[in-house]
Every structure is written in C-alpha cells, then in structure tokens.
Amino acid sequence: MTRYGVVGPGAVGTTIAYELAQASKDVQLLGRSDKRMEYDPGNSQSCTTLGVTDIKKAETSFDVLFIAVKAHQLNAVMHDLERLIGENSIVILAQNGYRDLNRLPIKHVYQAVVYISGQKDGNTVTHYRDEILHLQRDARTQQLKQELDDSGLHIELENNIESTIWYKLLVNLGINSVTALGNDTARVLKVDGMRELVRHLINDGLRVAQAEGIQFETTLIDDIMNIYDGYPDEMGTSMYYDIKDRKTLEVDYIQGYIYEKAREHKLETPYLDTIYTLLLAHQV
C-alpha cells in the first residue's frame, strides 16, 4: 500500500491529508509538533479532527511526500527529507510561486500548481473551495493520478506545466497583492478602482510571461477576474494572512520572481514595480 506523507498542517496540507484519509489511504500529516487539527471541509459536511505528528519523530520513509509549507520555509524541512523519502519516492511541492527544481537535491520532485482555498486559524482549518493539484505528466504522475482517482483530491496532468505555473502566478499576482496591501479579504475587490488596478497588474505580469515564451488566450485577464468573482467575500489569501499575522511573505516566489524576469527582459512594468516595492516594505 502506498504510504503518503504531508508536511505542513496549514490550509493546503490539511486539506490534502483529509482527502487522502477519507479515501482510506495510508497518510500521515507532519508538522513542527504533535497536535490535533480541527478541519471543516465545507459543503455542509461535518467537521473532523486530524492528528499531526512532529516531523522529527517520523522515521519511516514515504512513497509520496507532499510538501505544503510556504515556499520560503522549504529550506527548514530539507534536512528532514533524508529520513522521509527513499530512492524512488515522489516529492510534490504544493506551494505558491515558482522555484527552480533543478537546484533541489531530490531525484523525483514535481512542482504542483495548487487550487485549494481555505483558511487556518490557530489549530482550525476551514476549507472554502477546490481540491485540485496540477502536475507535469509522466509515468510516475500518471500512476499517482490512477491511485488517487477514488479520492476527493483531483490530480490534473499537464503536458506543459510551465504554462500552468505561469497562469497561477498571474492569478496570485492580482489577488494576493491587493488583499495583502489592502489588508482585507476578497471583498477588497469591491473598493472603487480596485478591479482596474488588478487588471493593470495582471497585464504587467502577462507581458513578462509572453517574453518568457508563454502564450495565453486573449481572454486571460477576463478569465482571471471571473475566477475572483467566484471567491466568497470572506475568503483571504495566504499573503493576506501572512500580512495580518506579521509573518514572512512569499513575495520572492510570486511578485519578486515576475519582477526579476521583467528586469531580464528589460520590460517596463510600473504596476508590478509599485506593488513589489510596497510588499518588500512589509518585510523590513
């Protein structure tokens, strides 16, 4: 039986562990300490409790390991991976942003594009919508998808994951930036002029993606705005909660990554430049 591990008992990690447990998979949720997480799956389903094991106590390796900590927290768990994975283990980074996988000392590692919306408050996670992970298609991920087809965790396989990664980067660029700097949840989009600002910001990012050779439909910005329209007003983003809790932001892996690529291509991106600078001010 495949052994699944999930590192990070936040909204994404807890949702992944919950869906695997509901499908009777052998799964262990790992964190910085032993504790219990209360999980509200939404859709009028009953709340449940999931146990979290201190990652230092986990000694048996996993066949599939989901890493659902923030992108900037990955280095903190890297030294634990030697105990958690074997020669043929699959490691899936379920994180926002972009990372060069070639720099990681992991044999079978995949960057997932994550569509799981939820909120963590203390030891309680509330799930809002979606349980989707996009992965690059190959023999290993095809087998993984088959194994998880009976679960509520939906694996979507892509022939070109780069386009999917950039699409999510642009989704995050808009909503994460304005919820963080506006210090509000998705209802910040109802502020006069905010939607127009977001459209300009996404357009800056779109031009960078095109310079990188990524092509999208001409309706891209409208499509992303339609995604935002499906968010409940009370739904926050990871960057909003990090600002609220005075935590380190994922800015280097979202806005910062796009900003650096814009500089490489010598593009003028005034909205991105302004947003990135303001977010950096919160890191000081």
TrEMBL record:
Q: What molecular functions are annotated in GO for this chain?
A: 2-dehydropantoate 2-reductase activity; NADP binding; phosphogluconate dehydrogenase (decarboxylating) activity
Q: In which pathway does it act?
A: Cofactor biosynthesis; (R)-pantothenate biosynthesis; (R)-pantoate from 3-methyl-2-oxobutanoate: step 2/2
Substrates-to-products reaction catalysed:
6-phospho-D-gluconate + NADP(+) = D-ribulose 5-phosphate + CO2 + NADPH; (R)-pantoate + NADP(+) = 2-dehydropantoate + NADPH + H(+)
What biological process terms from GO does the record include? pantothenate biosynthetic process
Stretches assigned to the Ketopantoate reductase N-terminal domain: 5-129
Q: Which InterPro entries does the UniProt record give?
A: 6-PGluconate_DH-like_C_sf, 6PGD_dom2, ApbA, Ketopantoate_reductase, KPA_reductase, KPR_N, NAD(P)-bd_dom_sf
Q: Which UniProt keywords apply?
A: NADP, Oxidoreductase, Pantothenate biosynthesis
What GO terms fall under cellular component here?
Answer: cytoplasm
The superkingdom of the source organism is Bacteria
**Record's protein name:** 2-dehydropantoate 2-reductase
* Protein source organism: Staphylococcus argensis
